[in-house]
Amino acid sequence: MCGIAGILQTAPVSGVGVLEPLLAGFQQALRHRGPDDCGLWMNAAGSAGLAHTRLSILDLSPGGHQPMVSEDGRRVICFNGEIYNFRELRSGLEDRGEVFRTQSDTEVLLRLHALEGVRMVERLRGMFAFCIWDEAEQTALLARDPLGIKPLYVHESQGRLAFASELRALTGSRLFQPTLDERAVQGFFETGTVPEPLTLAKEVRLLEAGHTLTWRAGASSSRRYWRLQFGGSFEGDPVRHTREALLDSVRHHFVSDVPVGVFLSGGIDSTALLALAHETGHRGIGSFSITVDDPAADEGEVARRTARHFGSDHHEMRLDAEVACGLFGEFLKHTDQPSIDGLNTFTVSALARRHGMKVVLSGLGGDELFGGYASFSRIPRMLRMHHWLGRAPFLPGLLRRGGPRHRRMADFLGGSGSVDDAFAALRGIFSRPEAAALTAWITGGPVPLPEAVEEVVAEEGALDRISVLELTRYMRNQLLRDSDVMSMAHGLELRVPLVDRVLVEKVTRVPAGQRLLPNKGLFTAAVPEVPDWVVNQRKRGFLFPYQKWLGGEWGDAFAAACARSPVAVPQWYQKWSLFMLRHSLEVLGVRS
Asked: How far is residue 435's CA from residue 189's CA, in Å, rounded to a whole number?
């Protein structure tokens, strides 16, 4: 797990002399992601350079150093992530006569590329973002994992391509003056996150999940190699099928040369991971929890009881308003793209790293796959509501006079009544007219309505479509992005066994009527080791005591961010969104 960056160019001004300081700047900007080692590589012509910072997880020896050059000197790789099936891939390559120098998954990628080229990505199981430079062909292959766990930001201009693991590294490189993308701002105000592939800077985009990008002679082309699909043929027992898939994923996610821990809340997903780890022979692992000073939201006692039940080495941090205020400044230093989430991951990651961990598992993905969110019950009701209330043309106007949720509901009732519209109303931050007004206020001019940035998926039922939206819009754009940035802020690798390509491919074959049972019934049936006191409790999202400390030390800053807003900003998450956007624009140096 690492930070990666690089520059590819067709016409270097003065060769290596220009390239080296740029790469060193990237390396410094990403140092927190890889505190164990770092490296630079440049070709003699100055047309290609790669930078790397390393968090050593597999092959802790110098043999895992990056950028890694192939034995014949032709290929060079800069890789961020973990390939969980690298041992199986390595064994197959050895059967074909390949001889390895290291025990790392990085070398497996190099060898696989030499034999299979771009098609190699279709064989990878893991979370990854990488660039492989072919010196003989003067081409580069960039790739990002199927579900978008690891980010890869790309800038292209005048025959040059630059990339990095974080947006800040690119906007701070002085390769270009970043200018504000109005579509990204509007998307952020609507959803609480910048929708992929957009970024706040017009000059930078995210390589989309499940895509490769090939660069040659100043031009690039992208290809989608994986698509999220639901349905297909399924026969057999869904409980047994799901359990086998879960056990297989957890086994693969323990591939490591350092200890692996788990983030443990009081919920089903993280408890199931601890239970499955126990079942696969991993006993006494470290578990880490955050407790809060709100009895209605605190899951500390449930987590402690679960940890005792499975015998984990449990650690927790008590987070009250005073402690949160003290951490908030450090949290802001590591913010990349703005979000209305991430502080919880930042704090529990700090706890795990303080106790010597380099790798932890997170239960992220269970709600999206197995129907744990309220969206799976509310959206079908909203669709039925639209059928009847959509006939009352006066109703949207009436609702716009109400609170934030009423105004977002007005958007839904005034639209086509699709699952996507219902999802936007339910998950949204501001209504579309409010988001447009705020965007115009931030950018200083009128803003055209943006084109929809959404996943194109084959026909499916409403429940499967909700899963698609939760996995691609909420999870990928917000949860995974926050998890990457805020765990890597502490040099901690966060693994997500429930966001595994093989697991997803298997589980999504189960029909929605069996997969999305109430209270994640299929999931809990597949992991019966999850105790009743976890399964039967009332579902609670992680609630940080935001409102208790918004009026404290940081209250004036939040008030200033919202001052003279063209729309009402009554809710804490709306105030948070305005503050975080302004902070990100300042950090990134983006101009409107």
From this structure: 5
User: Any idea which residue has 């391509």 for tokens?
Assistant: 161
Burial status of residue 455 (CB atoms within 10 A of its CB: 0-12, 13-18, 19 or more): middle
For residue range 124-152, what is the model confidence (pLDDT) as tens digits?
Answer: 999 999 999 999 999 999 999 999 999 99
| H helix runs in 414-568, sequence order | 419-427, 432-443, 462-469, 481-488, 501-507, 512-515, 521-526, 532-535, 546-550, 555-562
Closest CA to 267 of 379, 156, 364: 364
pLDDT at residue 12, rounded to an integer? 61
Is residue 513 located within the same domain as residue 389?
Answer: no
CA dihedral for 399, 405, 408, 414, sign (positive or negative): negative
18 has pLDDT over 50: yes
Q: Output the CA–CA distances (angstroms, integers) from residue 529 to 309, 517, 526, 535, in the order listed.
A: 10, 18, 9, 10
| pLDDT category of residue 14 using cuts at 50, 70 and 90 | very low
What residues have CB less than 8 Å from 470, skipping those under 6 apart?
Answer: 367, 368, 373, 375
User: What does the DSSP assignment read for 321-332?
Assistant: HHHHHHHHHHHH
- C-alpha pair distances (Å), 361 with each of 50, 194, 253, 261, 262: 29, 25, 8, 6, 4
Tracing tokens 């590819």 back to the chain, one arrives at 8
Q: Domain residues for 403?
A: 375-462
Does any domain span residue 585? no
Whether residues 255 and 282 fall in one domain: yes
